[in-house]
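Quick start: what a row looks like.
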Amino acid sequence: MTDFWLYGALLILAGMLFVLWPVWKMRRQNTVDRTALNVALYEERVAELAAQKAAGEITPELHDIALEEAGKLLLEDTARADQERRPTHRGSPWPIILGAGAMPLVVIALYMSWGNPDGLQLLREMENEPAPADIVAYIDRMERVTRVQPQNGEVWYMLGRAYLMQQRPAEAERAFGNSLARLGESPELLAQLGQARFFANGNQLDSEARTALNRALEMNPREPTALGLLGISAFEEGLYPEAISYWERLQAGMPPDSEGYRAIQGGIDRARERLGQDSETVSQAQAGISLRIELAEELADSYGDEAVVFVSARDPDGPPMPLFAQRLERGSLPAELVLDSRYALMPGVQMENGQQLQLSARISPDSDVRNAAHAADRLDVTVGETEGRVILVIDRKL
């Protein structure tokens, strides 16, 4: 901030000089003395007349007449100069001087009232120290940013995440609420808000938290935080099949060899034990469809690795909305997978043997399925009765 105030002081001094310079000049430079000028002109005229007389250009009578006229003009010009000069001294320079002296105080007061000195100081601090030393310093900085930019929803979201890390759920809930009010609904934000309310309420889901989590799943059926919390809540309420459904959907988005996957599997096993079922038997008996997804050779060069493949299964006699779906990366093709209840898009939906499903696969150049340009032919199957692996080849233009 030192350089800012230094530059500000220089600008104020420049403004004061601009105002005071005419006054100083007026005080240092008196108005041109018209009397002295008239006397000088008179003397020059007298000398000129004398030279003309000596040269015989004018007669002595004309010389005397012209000299008398020059004297009269001198008296008249002197009197006129005195009359014109008097009004210039009526005003006092002190109002201008006092106004210039008050200028710095007015400028500073206006800047402190309308300006943003805290924001400028924070900007300089972030330039000098981009990464805070610890979580406490990080929270302090984010709190200051929210005071400077209270309409910045992203900063409120970051502050809420930091509060959760420091186990301050009530404050995190307020921060996520402010973020939601400014950014609008998003699956991740709704899930974080529900999680903050869950912790703030003694690890219990109240109606508002449950509403936020369910809304997050409506927007993104794979939202991990919402699936995890709703699974925990269902388990604690004794709704073990529902908890298993949530956690299996959560597992579907995790690498099988990750710590998170194994932790979720432990919760699923405990839920199955509570149901009096053997985890391994249930896993073996679980209904599913084995699939192989391929991309036609003539389309291989049409899609880069950022393209996304959407595999889905719907009720052929029901609405067009899929019951089960899985997303693959273009680079994984050809891919083999098992589509089962873990990939259900709605809670409580289970894939059962004998169920009639219609399979489809389509590819999109980005993550939006609505932009898909090619698809495989739809295929009707019966769960548990279709032999071997079902092959879907994406080769048809939409």
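That is the whole record. Residues 2-85+93-114 form one domain. Residues 251 and 261 are 6 Å apart (CA to CA).
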